[in-house]
Backbone:
């Protein structure tokens, strides 16, 4: 299978978003690699992933890919971070394999009950006809966010140039993007939340800058998942991991550090009581 690794340190699995290709998250991956050993890949239904796709492609299919990536990298546990659609995959993986998730990060993840806008539902039914239209609308959706995150014209031009290069080098598939969008709209992520005991960080942008998913819906994960933390990445919207990657990586690093400190305190307390923590014990409790 395809496995992309960057950096050293504690392992972190990064699951990309709706485009499916890891290359679109390169700014976030590079920033995270300053603190973590980042393990990433293209989504399992992408030909570049090196995996034969199953006819029944659901979130469990993608969650199995996360497990396979950890196995291929020789890691039993890792911080698991998902961006947008990847956040739903990360959430699903954490419900099925909690013993393999050191900490969970949901970044700009569509909230429970998220639905396609009427126009986009039409696009999803006829992706090869309307896919180019959806992609052509992307600059307009991102314009306010990019201007806020990158106030200097030169930085905005560089960001746009890098995204265009990625589009040419790793073109997304409208049909696969449409299938993922339909999957997002059909999955009951609220039910998954009730099964999460893993330390969780929910990251959103600012409400007026996210033109893709409503921030207030994404923020619901912080209320539905017991003990979850919520962080707002200022001057960003849906693409904060890409437009302000260093700030995004700092939020993830600081959260992982807090989780590790709590774990060590829990281990020390258990040792004083006469033994190590039991397998599967919730260290954040």
Residues:
């Amino acid at each position: 299978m395809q496995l992309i690794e960057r950096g050293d340190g504690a392992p972190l699995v990064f699951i990309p978003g709706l485009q499916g290709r890891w290359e679109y998250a390169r700014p976030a991956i590079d920033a995270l690699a300053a603190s973590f050993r980042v393990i990433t890949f293209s989504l399992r239904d992408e030909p570049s992933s090196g995996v034969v796709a199953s006819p029944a492609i659901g979130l469990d299919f993608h969650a199995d890919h996360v497990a396979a990536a950890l196995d291929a990298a020789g890691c039993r546990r890792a911080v698991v971070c998902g961006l947008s659609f990847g956040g739903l995959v990360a959430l699903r993986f954490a419900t099925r394999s909690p013993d393999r998730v050191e900490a969970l990060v949901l970044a700009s993840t569509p909230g429970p009950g998220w639905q396609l806008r009427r126009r986009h539902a039409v696009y999803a039914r006829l992706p090869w006809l309307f896919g180019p239209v959806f992609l052509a609308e992307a600059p307009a959706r991102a314009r306010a966010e990019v201007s806020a995150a990158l106030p200097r014209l030169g930085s905005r031009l560089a960001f746009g140039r890098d995204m265009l290069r990625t589009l040419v080098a790793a073109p997304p598939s409208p049909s696969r993007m449409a299938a993922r969008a339909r999957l997002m709209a059909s999955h009951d992520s609220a039910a998954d939340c009730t099964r999460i005991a893993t330390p969780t960080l929910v990251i959103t942008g600012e409400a007026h800058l996210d033109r893709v998913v409503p921030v207030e819906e994404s923020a619901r994960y912080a209320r539905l998942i017991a003990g979850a933390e919520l962080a707002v990445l200022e001057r960003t919207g849906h693409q904060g991991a890409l437009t302000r990657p260093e700030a995004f990586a700092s939020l993830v690093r600081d959260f992982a550090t807090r989780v590790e400190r709590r774990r060590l305190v829990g281990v020390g307390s258990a040792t004083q009581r006469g033994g190590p923590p039991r397998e599967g014990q919730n260290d954040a409790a």
Summary: The first strand starts at residue 4 and ends at 6. Residues 276-285 have pLDDT under 50 and may be disordered. Residues 123 and 129 are 8 Å apart (CA to CA). The beta strands are 4-6, 10-15, 36-40, 78-83, 101-107, 200-204, 229-232.
